[in-house]
């Protein structure tokens, strides 16, 4: 057997088998775990329910398949450490260890420098791909900044993390300048320029605004705009549309029910507290003349 490898645990195999025949929901993989093996080299065991010396857990960053194996990846933040990474695995939403593996030890040092962030994965070979039924709880999403000029058709964005472009990739992009170009393209970390689409059409001028952060999904040919995450609206005024301010909402809430309704009597009365019409008053005065 190989010196370094990954395996499906017994508990993981049981869950996958149940899902494959429809007796259970697909296994929902949500968590990547790494450990130091308790300070020594480890050998993966199908009976494991936890890592031997777990040091960190985090979200899934990427999932891919290659032939008869699937690959689950994560990104270990620069602030995590100090220890040697010797074992890896991933769990489902119930906390069951689905797969476990060992790797050549990697020193992970805690630092504030981005260069000490580590991308790490686990490759699991399978004998029958049709029996593997699972889903991935959405992984972390890359973030990039675009400082291209307003009228630049070829927009370029820089992502601090290692960025691999693939179909279905999600990425947040902050635009430092409003896009005024028609038919703009987007190139993230020099992975290729692809058209930016919005509602199945080329992006229009002015939609991508300065200071806004937008979510895009790559479909293999285009970056599709999904929406922004920090867009705001101005407060409405007498001359322009907008959102109702908190102060104005408070004023509306303070108006008593029926306050906009004034009852006016059309005749004098010694019991009514309502105001009286002018003509009723005049008629009463004229009648006494």
Layout: helices, strands, pairs:
Elements: E1 6-8, H1 10-20, E2 27-35, E3 54-59, E4 62-66, E5 69-76, E6 83-92, E7 97-108, E8 118-125, E9 134-136, E10 142-146, E11 154-159, E12 170-175, E13 185-188, E14 193-198, E15 201-202, E16 213-218, E17 223-228, H2 246-253, H3 278-288
Parallel strand pairs: 2-9, 10-12, 11-13, 14-17
Antiparallel strand pairs: 1-7, 2-3, 2-6, 4-5, 5-8, 6-7, 10-11, 12-16, 13-14, 14-15, 16-17
Give keywords.
single chain, 289 residues, mainly beta, seven-stranded mixed beta barrel, 3 helices, elongated
Question: Would you kindly provide a brief summary of this structure?
Answer:
By secondary structure, the chain is mostly beta strands.
How would you describe this structure to a colleague?
Helix content is 10%, strand content 36%. It has three helices and 17 strands. The model has no long low-confidence stretch (mean pLDDT 80).
């Amino acid at each position: 057997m190989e010196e370094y490898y990954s395996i499906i645990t017994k508990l993981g195999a049981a869950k996958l088998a149940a899902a494959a025949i429809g007796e259970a929901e697909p296994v929902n993989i949500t968590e990547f775990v790494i450990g130091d093996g308790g300070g020594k080299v480890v050998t993966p065991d199908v009976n494991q329910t936890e890592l031997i010396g777990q040091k960190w857990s985090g979200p899934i960053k990427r999932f891919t398949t290659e032939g008869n194996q699937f690959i689950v990846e994560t990104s270990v933040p620069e602030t995590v450490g100090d220890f040697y990474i010797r074992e890896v695995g991933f769990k489902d939403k119930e906390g069951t260890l689905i797969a476990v593996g060992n790797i050549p030890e990697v020193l992970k040092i805690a630092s504030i420098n981005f260069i000490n962030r580590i991308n790490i994965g686990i490759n699991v070979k399978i004998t029958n791909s049709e029996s593997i039924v699972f889903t991935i709880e959405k992984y972390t999403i890359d973030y990039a900044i675009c400082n291209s000029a307003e009228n630049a058709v070829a927009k370029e964005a820089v992502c601090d993390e290692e960025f691999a472009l693939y179909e279905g990739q999600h990425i947040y992009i902050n635009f430092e300048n409003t896009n005024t170009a028609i038919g703009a393209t987007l190139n993230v970390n020099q992975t290729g320029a692809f058209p930016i689409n919005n509602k199945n059409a080329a992006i229009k001028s002015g939609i991508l605004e300065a200071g806004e952060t937008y979510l895009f999904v790559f479909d293999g040919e285009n970056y599709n705009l999904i929406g922004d995450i920090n867009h705001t609206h101005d407060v409405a005024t007498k001359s322009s549309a907008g959102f109702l301010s908190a102060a104005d909402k408070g004023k509306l809430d303070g108006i008593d029910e029926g306050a906009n309704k004034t009852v006016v009597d059309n005749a004098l009365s010694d019991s009514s507290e309502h105001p009286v019409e002018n003509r009723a008053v005049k008629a009463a005065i004229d009648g006494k003349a």
